[in-house]
Specification:
The complex is a heterodimer of chains A (about 120) and B (about 120).
Chain A lengths: L2 E3 L4 E5 L4 E3 L2 E3 L5 E8 L6 E7 L6 E3 L2 E6 L4 E6 L8 E9 L7 E2 L3 E6 L1
Parallel strand pairs in A: 2-12
Antiparallel strand pairs in A: 1-4, 3-9, 5-6, 5-10, 7-8, 8-9, 10-11, 10-12
Chain B lengths: L3 E4 L2 E4 L5 E7 L6 E7 L5 E8 L5 E2 L8 E7 L2 E6 L8 E8 L9 E2 L3 E5 L1
Parallel strand pairs in B: 2-11
Antiparallel strand pairs in B: 1-3, 3-8, 4-5, 4-9, 5-6, 7-8, 9-10, 9-11
Classes of the chains: A mainly beta (about 120), B mainly beta (about 120).
Chain lengths: ~120, ~120
Amino acid sequence: AQKVTQAQTEISVVEKEDVTLDCVYETRDTTYYLFWYKQPPSGELVFLIRRNSFDEQNEISGRYSWNFQKSTSSFNFTITASQVVDSAVYFCALNSGGSNYKLTFGKGTLLTVNP
Amino acid sequence: GAVVSQHPSRVICKSGTSVKIECRSLDFQATTMFWYRQFPKKSLMLMATSNEGSKATYEQGVEKDKFLINHASLTLSTLTVTSAHPEDSSFYICSASTSGRASDTQYFGPGTRLTVL
């Protein structure tokens, strides 16, 4: 069975701090895909990144970076120099054939960035 | 690119009425669309998967006669909540995927907040 665990329910930081959101996943498939989505207060889920299981290279996009480690089944997300606009719920998700091609979401982490 | 719209964004209706929610992929063709429900401060719960031209596949516990899904074209899927009751009040979100494969990114619409009085 697929499972995604986001152990941090809520995180609160002060603007300009760096923050890391944890994501641990479980799957028996050797081919799978990991995603991060951002859900601001408006409600829309915004796609941030997709990573396949064969590509363990870390990725950086502006202030965002992702650390994928198969050895620990983790796909952590770091925001550098956080801003108030980063305040949102962040979801980590997993998709593979083992889940019948359905996204398995974590419970989400509510990030609040205070000025 | 990869824009998905939903209409309406908010709807308030009386108990017993039916409500239709539209989900459109604006700049790509979506063979597969998904309908989710989200309760406050909770994660997304998949309700059903719809493939263009075929019947939707519903998740366990979701009443297919209550939540009617139609995916008539590669850019449009509709969810109709029939005979709505207050317990159907929720945030409904659709997503669209070019093929429904695990490798495909699901792009989400902005959601529809349904309130049933």
